Sequence to fold (369 residues):
Amino acid sequence: MTNKKKTSLVLGIMCFALTLGIVVQLRTVKNTNSTVSQNYEENNLRAEVLKYKERYENKYKDLEKAQAELEKVREKATQNNGELEEAENQIKQANKINGTTEVTGPGIIITLTDGKSIPTTLNPNDLIVHYLDILSVVNELKNAGAEAISVNDQRIVNTTGISCSGNIIDINGERVGSPFVIKAIGLPEYLANLSRPGGYLEKMKDDGVDVKTEKSNSVTIPKYTGVMTFKYLKNVE
Amino acid sequence: MIFVAILIGCILGAIIGMNTPMISYTYSSYLAIAIIAALDSVFGGIASVIKKNFDLKIFISGFFGNAILAILLTILGQKLNVDIYLAAIVVFVWRMFMNLGTIRRYYVEKWSDKFIKKEEKEKTTEKEVAEK
Fold:
C-alpha cells in the first residue's frame, strides 16, 4: 500500500510539472502572437526582434528604478533648505508640463474604433480612423483647454509627431492601432464640447466610425517614455 | 488511486499555469524542449509498464534527467551557434513513436485475442447446441 501511495504521489507531482510547463509555454507562445512562418530565416529574425524588445523593456525598468531613486535622493537633499525646496518644486512643475511624469485629474476619454459594417453606399475609406482624424481630435482637445493628452498610452508632448505608416499610426515613434483611446485632462464640460453637432467627432460618426466619449473624474495619463534631446536650442542672452 | 493522483496533478498544474506570470520569450525555447523530453519519458513509462519492467526510480530520473539534459544541450547549442535542440527533438520524437508503437501493438494484440476467443466460444456453443 505504501508503495502504491508513493507511486501515485510521484506520478501526480510529475503530471503537475508537465501540465504546468505546457500551459505556461502555450500562454507564452500565444502572448508573443507570432505566427509561425515556414521561412526559417524569418522565424529567427522575429525571435531576435522579440529578444531585443525584451532587453529594452528590462533596461527601461532599470531606468525607471534609477529615476525613482534619484527623486528620493533629491527630496532628501532639499528637505531642510528653503531655496532648494523651491528649485525642487520648479523641477516637479516642469516635469508635469513636459510630460515626463504620470499625471491624473478630471477629464474625458474618447474611443475611436474603425467602423465594422460596410454599407455599400459609404466609402469604405471613411470607416477607418486615419492619422489626420487623430491629429484633428488632439488639436480640438488642445483648443478646448486640455492640459495633458495621450493616445493609446502615448503621451502627446511637444516633440510628438502623429504620422501615417500603412495600416497603423505612428505616434512618438511607437506604432498604434485601432481602437484609439484618447485621454485628456482638463475641464470635462469644455472637453465634452468636442461632440457638439457639426464638430469633428460628429462628422466622424456620420462617416461610420464608432465614436464613444466618456467624462471621468479621474483620468490617468502615463508619462512620455521616449528621450527628449535638444541639440540646437540655446538661450538668447 | 494512481489515476486520481494523475488527474489531480493535471488539474492543479493547469490552474496554477493559468495564473503564473509568463516566462520571457528567451526561455520559452528551453521550456519547449523540456516539455518534449518529459512527454517522451511519459510514453516510455507507459511502454515499460506494458513490457512489465517498469521501475519508478528509472522513470523519475528519466523524467527530470532528460528534461535537464535537453535544456543544457539547447543552451550549449546556442553558445556554439549549432542547433543541437533539433537533434534532441528528432531523438525524442523518434523514441515517442517507438514507444507508441509498442503500446499500440500490445493493445491491438489484446483486442484481437479477445475477438478470436469469442468466436471460438460461439463455435463451441453452436456445436453443443447441434449435438443436443
In short: The interface with chain B takes residues 4-25, 27-29, 31-32, 47, 50-51, 54 of chain A (CB under 8 Å). The longest helix of chain A spans residues 40-77. The two ends of chain A are 92 Å apart (CA to CA).
